[in-house]
Structure formats: structure tokens, C-alpha cells
């Protein structure tokens, strides 16, 4: 069984200025716009992060789930951890464990070549946990939510290389870690004071919420090749925190040299 992080979704009040911050500071390119999100009262854009993706969604109408999430978390921030299962069987095993532990399915669709299953952020105690299956079964290539293979010519890794991890926060990190572990079917381990769960390509890190914003997807660990570019651009755009961190779209981006 393997579960690969393929995409992080952030939610913002306004799409264009957030995209400008992310692309300029992180040195990544837009690669896909999905018109299907209009069904949920949203607009979006995806950017390539290595062979994975960073998405931003923003409400285009009142009373959307994303809009309520913005209100609950007091502004822009992390929204979804979107993963690819190595088989439909793995995906359905995750769905089954979710049902056993009282985790609701917020949305699912079963199509010929692609299956999507979004688990409710309230029940996952931090963010949406989306587990998808694609018959191409290629962790580095075809990804239906990014338009299949059309994104490949937009990959840029001279500044930001790839994801290393995701930081999920809540009032009780142990309880939060246990929920994600029991649903994903993966063990949690400690490294010093850190509670970690390893996916195929990144580690989820469970921490106590200390920013006054409650449970959520609070941070992203990035492998970077040009820290100086990121810090200089972040300073210009009012997103600099320190030499190890920038804050964009209400999300902490932790920088690790590649």
C-alpha cells in the first residue's frame, strides 16, 4: 500500500493576489485551471511543485463551503491534503476505515479512469483528507485534477524543488495524529518532540495549534534551491518571517535547502 501526496489546496478570499505572491516568491508556474470547481461556487488555479501541485481556490459566490471555512479559520489558509492511492483497493480501504471511525465523506465521484473521495475536515480534525485513484497509477506523471499530463512543460525547480512535509495543527496533537493514522492505515512515530506520519513522499507533522486560528493545515515544508530569491521576494511582498520561513495565504512555508 502506498499513498502519495500529490496536491495541497489553499483557500483565499481573492485568487489573483494570492497567485501573484505564490508564483513570485516560490518561483513556481501556474499549470492548470479547472472550470469544474465553479459547481462549488469557486475559482481556482494549480501550480506545479516538482511533479506535484499547489492549488488555490477562492469563493465566487456567498455561502460556499470554502467561504465558511475562511470564516471559521479567520482568513486565508490551508484547506486540503490531496493524495493519490496506488490502487483503487487502497483508496477503498481508506474509505472503509474512515467509515469505521465515523468520518463522513464530504464528496465522492466514481468515474471510469479516476475516483475521488474527500473526507470531511471536521471529522479529520484539521483539514480535508482527499484520497484519489487514477488508473494510470503514475505518482510522477498523469494527474487528473491537473488536466492529465498538460502541466509538464510548466515544471520549474530552480527556486522551489518539491514538498517535504505538511504541518497539521489542533488542540491535541496526539488525538489528531491518531485520527489520521487510523484512517490512512499508517503508523505514527516520534522524533524527539515531533509526531510524524510518513506518506510515500512526505511526512505529516502533527502540532499543537498556537496561532489562535484553531485546527487546520498550518504549514508546508519545502525543499528549496534558491532560498535567497524566496526571502528577497517575500520581503518585497510583505511575507517574510525569518530566514527559515515565509507566510503566504495564511500558511507557514518552512524552507529546507535541497
Summarize the structure.
With 258 residues, this protein is of the alpha+beta class. The chain has six helices and 16 strands.
Q: What is the spatial order of strands in the main beta sheet?
A: 2-3-4-1-5-8-7-6
CATH topology of the largest domain: 2,3-Dihydroxybiphenyl 1,2-Dioxygenase, domain 1
Distance between the termini: 27 Å
**Total number of domains:** 2
Description:
With 258 residues, the protein is of the alpha+beta class. The protein folds into 2 domains: 136 residues, 2,3-Dihydroxybiphenyl 1,2-Dioxygenase, domain 1, CATH 3.10.180.10; 98 residues, 2,3-Dihydroxybiphenyl 1,2-Dioxygenase, domain 1. 23% of the residues lie in helices and 41% in strands. The chain contains 6 helices and 16 strands. It has an 8-stranded mixed beta sheet with strand order 2-3-4-1-5-8-7-6. Strands 10-11-12-9-13-16-15-14 form an 8-stranded mixed beta sheet, covered by helices on one side. It starts with a strand and ends with a strand. The model has no long low-confidence stretch (mean pLDDT 96).
Label this structure with key terms.
2,3-Dihydroxybiphenyl 1,2-Dioxygenase, domain 1; 6 helices; about 40% strand; alpha+beta; globular; 2 domains; about 260 residues; 16 strands; 8-stranded mixed sheet
Secondary structure elements and their pairing?
Blueprint lengths: L2 E9 L3 H12 L3 E3 L9 E8 L2 E8 L5 H8 L4 E9 L2 H13 L4 E6 L3 E6 L1 H4 L3 E7 L25 E11 L2 H12 L3 E4 L2 E5 L4 E6 L7 E9 L2 H10 L3 E3 L2 E4 L2 E7 L1
Parallel strand pairs: 1-4, 5-8, 9-12, 13-16
Antiparallel strand pairs: 1-5, 2-3, 3-4, 6-7, 7-8, 9-13, 10-11, 11-12, 14-15, 15-16
Helix pairs in contact: 1-6
Amino acid at each position: 500500500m502506498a499513498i502519495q501526496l500529490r496536491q495541497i489546496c489553499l483557500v483565499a478570499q481573492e485568487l489573483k493576489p494570492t497567485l501573484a505572491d505564490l508564483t513570485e516568491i516560490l518561483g513556481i508556474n501556474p499549470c492548470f485551471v479547472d472550470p469544474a470547481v465553479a459547481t462549488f461556487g469557486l475559482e481556482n488555479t494549480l501550480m506545479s511543485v516538482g511533479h506535484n501541485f499547489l492549488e488555490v481556490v477562492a469563493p465566487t459566490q456567498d455561502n460556499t463551503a470554502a467561504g465558511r471555512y475562511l470564516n471559521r479559520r479567520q482568513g486565508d489558509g490551508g484547506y486540503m491534503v490531496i493524495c493519490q492511492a496506488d490502487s483503487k483497493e487502497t483508496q477503498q480501504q481508506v474509505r472503509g476505515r474512515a467509515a469505521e471511525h465515523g468520518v463522513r465523506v464530504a464528496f465522492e465521484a466514481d468515474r471510469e479512469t479516476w475516483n475521488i473521495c474527500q473526507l470531511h475536515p471536521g471529522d479529520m480534525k484539521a483539514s480535508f483528507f482527499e484520497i484519489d485513484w487514477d488508473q494510470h497509477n503514475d505518482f510522477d506523471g498523469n494527474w487528473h485534477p491537473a488536466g492529465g499530463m498538460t502541466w509538464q512543460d510548466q515544471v520549474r525547480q530552480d527556486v522551489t524543488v518539491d514538498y517535504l512535509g505538511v504541518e497539521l495543527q489542533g488542540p491535541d496533537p496526539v488525538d489528531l495524529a491518531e485520527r489520521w493514522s487510523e484512517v490512512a492505515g499508517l503508523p505514527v512515530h516520534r522524533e524527539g518532540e515531533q509526531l510524524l506520519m510518513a506518506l510515500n513522499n512526505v511526512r505529516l507533522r502533527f502540532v499543537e495549534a498556537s496561532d489562535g486560528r484553531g485546527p487546520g493545515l498550518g504549514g508546508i515544508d519545502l525543499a528549496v534551491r534558491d532560498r535567497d530569491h524566496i526571502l528577497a521576494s517575500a520581503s518585497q511582498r510583505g511575507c517574510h518571517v525569518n530566514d527559515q520561513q515565509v507566510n503566504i495565504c495564511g500558511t507557514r512555508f518552512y524552507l529546507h535547502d535541497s
